[in-house]
Design goal:
18 strands, binds zinc ion, Quinone Oxidoreductase, Chain A, domain 1, binds ligand 572, globular, alpha/beta, 5-stranded antiparallel β-sheet
């Protein structure tokens, strides 16, 4: 029987420790998991190096990690869906299940969600961790635990592309070629987008985007959104959908200006709280501006995507992306 539960804990800005914590007991509706693979998200790095993201401040020690997969080692007394030995992907946000948002299925908007590694909620970059059984998704035998962990960022992309209404034949502009921009590129392609253009300020990121199937790339060399919108127009025409993943003001402005009339821009990127955008121009051209907050009901979709032939490509590519 294991006795150690080494855990990666952020105490405050630039104060990261590995410490031994007790192995928790699963509640009646929970499972105890032996953690297998945990990705490092940009938010984990931010809580470590900045101690905060916006209003979410590390005030108490917090275990990092929310892109994870593990193996069930013990089941709470009410759990019938899983048995010890099952390999699962963990959906890190467990909502209250009772509020209007939860009842309508938009549980990502639940104000009382427990979300791993968002202060004050502990994550699972540790050896043993308990989680609600119905937020653990059994992996098919041919889907690896590493792939299982990658289903979390994949869910972000699936949710964003769905919010944008990406469909067969869509032309899509993705602003920002970081991990979330690249996940969106893969998902948009898998959903049938025929033209995808991706922007970034770094040439090496655009190179990776091209390797992952971007049809066009635009290197951002100016902060003038009008100039950038013109450049995008010359490269791909005006996109039906824009998925903004950088959070930078210039990039959001670019998205609004570049998107075709009647199109949609979704905002995933988190930058300054207030930005100046030509909202009247957007309104006059019926360009819908939509928010994206994490995801809801996407983990099962992500498992199915990873499990099927066509989509194994997506997960292989996600792995390449992570290695990079
Ligand atoms: O994988 C989900 C995820 N969501 C992130 C960041 C990293 N990973 N978000 C950006 C930050 N927001 S937040 O509302 N917040 C700190 C809770 O600013 C959540 C979504
Ligand atoms: Zn994340």
């Amino acid at each position: 029987m294991a006795t150690r539960n080494l855990s990666v804990v952020v105490y405050a800005k630039n104060d990261l420790r590995i410490e031994n914590r007790p192995i928790p007991e699963p509640g009646p509706d929970e499972v105890l998991l032996k953690m297998a693979k945990v990705g490092i998200c940009g938010s984990d790095v931010a809580y470590w190096t900045k101690g905060a993201i916006g209003h979410f401040v590390v005030k108490e020690p917090m275990v990092l990690g929310h892109e994870s997969a593990g193996v069930v080692t013990k089941c709470g007394k009410n759990v019938t869906s899983l048995v010890p030995g099952d390999r699962v992907a963990i959906e890190p946000g467990v909502p209250c299940r009772l509020c209007d948002f939860c009842k309508k299925g938009r549980y990502n908007l639940c104000p009382d969600v427990y979300f791993c590694a968002t202060p004050p909620d502990n994550g699972n970059l540790c050896q043993y961790y308990t989680h609600a059984a119905d937020f653990c998704f059994k992996l098919p035998d041919h889907v690896s635990l590493e792939e299982g962990a990658l289903l979390e960022p994949l869910s972000v992309g699936v949710h964003a592309c769905e919010r944008a209404g990406v469909t067969l034949g869509s032309s899509v502009l993705i602003c920002g070629a970081g991990p979330i921009g690249l996940v969106n590129l893969l998902v948009a392609k898998a959903m049938g987008a025929t033209k995808v253009c991706i922007t970034d300020i770094a040439e090496n990121r655009l190179k990776v985007a091209k390797e992952l199937g971007a049809d066009y790339t635009v290197l951002v060399k100016t902060s003038d959104a009008e100039t950038l919108a013109q450049e995008v127009k010359e490269v791909m025409g005006m996109p039906d959908k824009t998925i903004e993943c950088s959070g930078a003001e210039t990039s959001i402005r670019l998205g609004v200006l570049a998107t075709k009339s009647g199109g949609v821009i979704v905002l995933i990127g988190h930058g300054p709280e207030e930005v100046k955008i030509p909202v009247v121009i957007a309104a006059a051209r019926e360009v819908d501006i939509r928010g994206v907050f994490r995801y809801a009901n996407k983990t099962a979709v992500a498992v199915a995507t990873a499990a099927t032939g066509g989509a194994s490509t997506i997960v292989e590519q996600l792995q390449l992306l992570h290695l990079f």
